[in-house]
Design goal:
The protein has a single domain, classed as Orthogonal Bundle (Arc Repressor Mutant, subunit A), CATH 1.10.10. Helix content is 68%, strand content 16%. It contains 4 helices and 3 strands; from the N terminus they run H-E-H-H-E-E-H. Strands 1-3-2 form a 3-stranded antiparallel β-sheet.
Length: 116
């Protein structure tokens, strides 16, 4: 098993959570999401992002509005719905619990390694 494959799967597993967090800060354009995710080293391409945004919209977690652009076609800006905010809050709780659990396991492993 290649470590790169495992790393990609770990990042994919938290992609939806990260996208909802980005959108939770206010109206956001898809290319700005891509830029932020890429700068955070969560590599994602348009072919992954757009279907995920559509799925989240169809689930009622986000909505969008079209905004006219002075330099081209109208842009679609995404926002969280009330249901999306509640969903993100629940995911946040799960993330914090999971991160604490993983950190506990890592610390125990490190402590064991230090005694050997």
């Amino acid at each position: 098993m290649k470590v790169e494959n495992a790393q990609v799967q770990m990042r994919k597993g938290i992609l939806e959570f990260c996208i909802l967090h980005v959108i939770s800060r206010g109206e956001v354009y898809a290319s700005d999401m891509l830029d932020e995710l890429t700068s955070a080293r969560i590599m994602v391409v348009e072919g992954t992002l757009y279907p995920l945004l559509t799925r989240l919209k169809n689930a009622g977690l986000l909505d969008y509005k079209w905004v006219e652009s002075s330099s081209g076609p109208p842009r679609k800006y995404y926002v969280l719905t009330d249901e999306g905010k509640q969903f993100l809050d629940a995911m946040q709780e799960t993330w914090l619990d999971l991160a604490a659990s993983v950190q506990m396991i890592i610390k125990k492993t490190e402590a064991t390694a230090d005694t050997n």
